[in-house]
Amino acid sequence: MQLSDPPERGDTLQQISNIAVARTASIHRTTGETDVQVNLNLDGTGKCTAATGIPFLDHMLHQIASHGLIDLDVRATGDLEIDDHHTNEDVGITLGQALNKALGDRKGIVRFGNFLAPLDEALVQVALDFSGRPHLSYGLQIPTQRVGTYDTQLVREFFVAIVNHSQMTLHIRQLDGINSHHIIEATFKAFARAMRMALEIDPRRAGTIPSSKGVL
What we know:
Layout: H1 9-21, E1 24-30, E2 34-41, E3 48-51, H2 55-68, E4 71-78, H3 85-103, E5 112-119, E6 122-129, E7 135-139, E8 146-147, E9 150-151, H4 154-166, E10 169-176, H5 180-199
């Protein structure tokens, strides 16, 4: 059997560039409770604008952008006079939809990502798979009900929303931690780095879907 010559480096980089061009999305989602606009570029440099009306959520969105090297613009208004739940969830939903749209058929991506992030005494592991099958395994034990004004129960709701609408499998494990802020921030940083790993274009797989089934 005669083997074909390997592609030139320039050809491989051009294939990667061609794939990366389309990896952007804009989603505008409006309900009776919220109005959310998300713009993202999976091949960005970590630029972020976040204005959700929930300061701690804005801080976590900056972690996703910065450590995931995703350019992210999130604007949201919602019924914060009731509580943060609807806005927090709908930002997660819209971000998940934007991820799903930007990924398209998911050709060429590494697909799997795993990262272990320390933040002082906190240590959190995130493993994920852009599998097309939504699943969340959530193992955080956050000791306080609030960080500032943010209800820490909303962390799980945010990830549920992202998982369901990006069609991602996500496992979050807390290995250590006693400070609620540190635990949550380590989680978002680990999530961002695992996602960055999974979203990278694999030069050996450029143009093909990373599944033995041929579809995700």
